[in-house]
Specification:
six-stranded mixed beta sheet, Rossmann fold, single chain, 12 strands, alpha/beta, four-stranded mixed beta sheet, elongated
Length: about 525
């Protein structure tokens, strides 16, 4: 049986290039921390979340699996249970490598094999009883069905169950004396457990509180006394313990590589859907985007920053992205703290998530799959650095321009802010010209209104809106509009009586009062 993957249809394929600066600026690490909530998941699945793809076949392969899981809650919960139980099997196997006493180790190895067989059979039943359309899950069902019917699995299951039955049937007598424990063969001696329970039954008042319960089966290691008792038992039942030794040797590698790797790959799906569910319960939309490396128009409706939405707990403002025909550039202007940077970052994040094959925060989406995502966000000026902030901006820009292609996404945030407005405008227009020639996708947050006023078929002006009733209130809506220039500043000045006419009138009134006092 050939090995299958739920992440790759035909190998890894082309990978999207996302430099470490972009990972940081898009806050990818923070998002992964929220998705992968425990260390076991991080150790396995984080590498996949850091490798977005540009292979359309692989992306759609993942999307089909997500679509099936989002439609069938029972299937999703069953696969989550499979992942957790396989994790438990691995925990037992790790423990056997750490245990000191040989028989103790082999006993827990047997328990791991029993749980593995039960887990795989449950997976087989789940897949057989579920309907889905994705080729990935159909391939998995076929593989598991064949594996469960294989001689290797049937022998493992039969021998494990027989050995467990044999060990469970062993009876022996312990004679406990001060400083001495004697182990002898059972010879129909009276069983005291039921007699003791009957004697103390009258003192029983209620069921034991759950917090005081202790599961003896979770005690894993042996102390030296227990180990000696087992060694004595080996002399009483040598054949049974020889069966245990043989089972350990014969089935040392009982884990099927494909079943094991699929269990790990499923963490990629189950962890993201658990994260997504938290936001869906608040009424926020998620959709599987239509992706392409040839169709360059983009539309995303009702999108939002998932990390911000998760942490805020407040009403989440949703925005749209719409780039038609030759449009490639979104020049984003407006008042500070109006959501411009969040919007630009989200634009990059949407392409990143789409490259992973994940459902994205939106009610509907169509996105181009870029070959790379490059960001240029402001950095704190380092005191020990000999470079000025502007020089650092230009050096970082040079690196981006050397790597960016027609198929890339570039996110620029308040670049050239350290330069005088006149210089920043000249530099901004020169950069804009270079990027237009490259024909890549760009989301550019800027204080330079003149960039948004450039008439070009590739440029779209996006403006962060404020409340029409009170311009000091940000709505965090970003819409396609012509740049307002100083309109926002004028509206604020008007609100507080600080327009040119207001100030002129006030000085005029004060002068009149002063003249009357003199006279």
């Amino acid at each position: 049986m050939s090995k299958l993957s739920l992440l790759y249809k035909h190998g890894v394929g082309e990978v999207m290039h996302v430099p470490s600066d972009s990972i940081r600026d898009l806050m990818i690490e923070e998002l992964i921390e929220e998705i992968l909530r425990n260390d076991y998941q991080k150790g396995i699945a984080k590498k996949w979340y850091l490798q977005p793809l540009r292979d359309v076949d692989n992306v759609r392969y993942r999307q089909e699996i997500f679509d099936d899981l989002m439609k069938d809650r029972t299937l999703l919960e069953g696969l989550k249970s499979f992942v957790e139980k396989m994790e438990d099997v691995h925990r037992l196997l790790r423990m056997t490598r750490e245990l000191t006493y040989d028989t103790n180790k082999k006993g827990w190895f047997l328990e791991a094999a029993l749980r593995y067989c039960k887990t795989v059979e449950a997976l087989s039943g789940l897949l057989e009883g579920s309907k889905f359309d994705s080729s990935g899950l159909m391939n998995l069902r076929e593989y598991v069905t064949n594996y469960v019917a294989s001689e290797k699995f049937r022998v493992l299951k039969f021998e494990a169950e027989q050995l467990k039955k044999e060990l469970s049937s062993l009876k022996y007598v312990l004679i406990l004396q001060p400083g001495q424990v004697t182990v002898k063969e059972y010879e129909d001696e009276e069983e005291y457990a039921s007699a003791i329970e009957k004697t103390f039954e009258k003192f029983k008042q209620a069921e034991c509180d759950e917090k005081y319960r202790f599961d003896l089966r979770k005690a894993t290691g042996m102390n030296h006394v227990e180990a000696r008792i087992v060694e004595f038992l080996r002399t009483i039942y040598p054949e049974t313990f020889q069966m245990l030794d043989n089972f350990y040797t014969r089935h040392a590698d009982f884990l099927d590589d494909t079943i094991d790797s699929v269990a790990k790959e499923l963490i990629f799906y189950t962890s993201y859907l658990s994260f997504l569910q938290q936001l869906k319960e608040r009424g926020l939309p998620f959709a599987i985007p239509r992706v392409s490396t040839t169709e360059r128009e983009e539309i995303v409706l009702n999108t939002f920053d998932p990390l911000l939405a998760l942490k805020s707990g407040k009403h989440v403002v949703q925005n749209d992205v719409n780039l038609e025909r030759a449009e490639r550039f979104m020049i984003i202007t407006g008042p500070n703290q109006g959501g411009k940077t969040t919007y630009a970052r989200l634009y990059g994040l949407l392409h990143y998530l789409a490259g992973l094959g994940l459902p994205i925060p939106a009610s509907r989406a169509k996105l181009f799959l870029p070959d790379g995502i490059y960001t240029h966000f402001e950095r704190k000026e380092e005191v020990e650095s000999q470079k000025s902030k502007l020089e650092d901006d230009l050096i970082r820009l040079k690196s981006i321009l050397e790597n960016v292609t027609q198929n890339s996404v570039v996110i620029l945030n308040e670049i050239f802010s350290s330069a005088a407005l006149y210089d920043a405008t000249i530099l901004g227009k020169e950069l804009l010209k270079k990027l237009i020639d490259i024909d890549c996708y760009v989301a550019w947050v800027t204080f330079i209104d003149e960039l948004a006023e450039v008439e070009h078929e590739k440029i779209v002006s996006m403006v962060a809106l404020v409340s029409p009733e009170d311009p000091s209130i940000r709505t965090f809506k970003i819409e396609r509009r012509k740049v307002k220039g100083r309109a926002h500043a004028i509206s604020i000045a008007r609100k507080y009586g600080l327009t040119y006419d207001d100030v002129k009138r006030r000085f005029s009134n004060e002068s009149s009062v002063a003249e009357r006092r003199v006279s």
